[in-house]
Amino acid sequence: MSQTDRRTLSLQLLPMSVQNPPPVGGAAPSLATWGALANTETSMMPSLCLCPGEVSELLVRLVHHGDRPLHYGLQINGTIPPSWYRFYTEGSELQPNQATEAVVRFQPEANFFEARQVVQPEQTLNLDYPAELRVQGLATDSLANPSDDPSGLLASKPFYLFLRPRSLYPQFLPAVYQEVDFIGRLLKVFEQSFEPAVNTWQSLWAYLDPLTAPESLLPFLAQWVGWQNEVTWSVAQQRSLIRQAMEIYRWRGTKRGLQLYLHLYTGLPQHDPTRSPQQQPIQITSAIQHGLVLGKSDFGPNAILGGGKPFHFNVTLRPNQGQFLDEALVRSIIDQEKPAVCTYDLEIAPVEELVHA
């Protein structure tokens, strides 16, 4: 394939991100440094900034102006590690007057700057990567006779990659200072120093939520809502109870409030649709008895004068098999939540006892 034939395939490289920051030393190197590539139309190479662990893309646009179908493939020549990039194409054949696009996706290792093998003794860290994208291939009718084109080069174009750590501070500087690479690297030192404090501030809400706060902050959060923790409670129980403290206060003295408190402490569901109303894990019933009512009661040995125990209720807990409930702690919870005039009976009936019953 002659040099004239190569021009039938036009190649364009479009970085899919803003060129920021520039390579070390200011602007990207001119094409004159590439020898034979110096006679191209532009004086600046396409450049792309990479950050460790982040994906950056280079769009490859091909237009075939020839009159014969082409089989092609993409190749990168240069010092870029092959593990950093991958090609995504729509096929390997171009018809006459057809245009197609491909994507080169770059993703350096996330621990590039932390890896010890990056810098060897008496070596400097390479952050700038000049490279060349080459389109290799043959015309379809030349596949049977590869000697028609010993090189197989259809088109080529140089580009430039530079690797930089992710930094936000230079974006707050005037544009003239953003172009100085040394300033960006200097600000990165301060950014890494202040980053833990900034991250703490951005996630401050997590320190104030009992479900996500560090365990050492739970006593402090409990004091905020006036909650008294028990030493026998697990960390998960403390988190749930502190978070629901205001709801428990709101319904204190009611059946709903007591049921919620027992649910948070025991972990038993407030309502189990698979069980009958008489076999719920947490069952609170009122012991209401009607005494002697004229016209509705019969006199006899079983007649009751009065209404039994006034303001009395029964609490039945049915824990799962093998689950232990501290009866003394359960009674202290009920005593704390019930109205002062009420009395109660407590029964803890394990599942295995219910089965035998």
Secondary-structure topology with pairs:
Layout: H1 3-6, E1 9-15, E2 47-50, E3 56-64, E4 70-78, E5 85-88, E6 93-94, E7 99-106, E8 128-139, E9 153-163, H2 175-178, H3 181-202, H4 204-207, H5 218-224, H6 235-243, H7 245-250, H8 255-266, E10 282-286, E11 312-317, H9 327-337, E12 343-348, H10 351-356
Parallel strand pairs: 2-9, 11-12
Antiparallel strand pairs: 1-3, 3-7, 4-6, 4-8, 5-7, 8-9, 10-11
Helix pairs in contact: 8-9
What can you see in these coordinates?
The chain is α+β, with helices and mostly antiparallel strands. It has four domains: 3-166, Immunoglobulin-like, CATH 2.60.40.10; 168-202, no CATH class; 206-243, no CATH class; 251-291 and 304-357, 2-Layer Sandwich (GMP Synthetase, Chain A, domain 3). 24% of the residues lie in helices and 23% in strands. The protein has ten helices and twelve strands. It has helices at 3-6, 175-178, 181-202, 204-207, 218-224, 235-243, 245-250, 255-266, 327-337, 351-356; strands at 9-15, 47-50, 56-64, 70-78, 85-88, 93-94, 99-106, 128-139, 153-163, 282-286, 312-317, 343-348. It has a five-stranded mixed β-sheet with strand order 2-9-8-4-6, with no helix packed on it. A four-stranded antiparallel β-sheet has the order 1-3-7-5, with no helix packed on it. Helix 9 (327-337) links the parallel strand 11 and strand 12 (343-348). Helix 8 (255-266) runs antiparallel to helix 9 (327-337). The radius of gyration is 38 Å and the shape is elongated. It starts with a helix and ends with a helix. Residues 1-6, 20-43, 143-150 and 352-357 have low confidence and may be disordered.
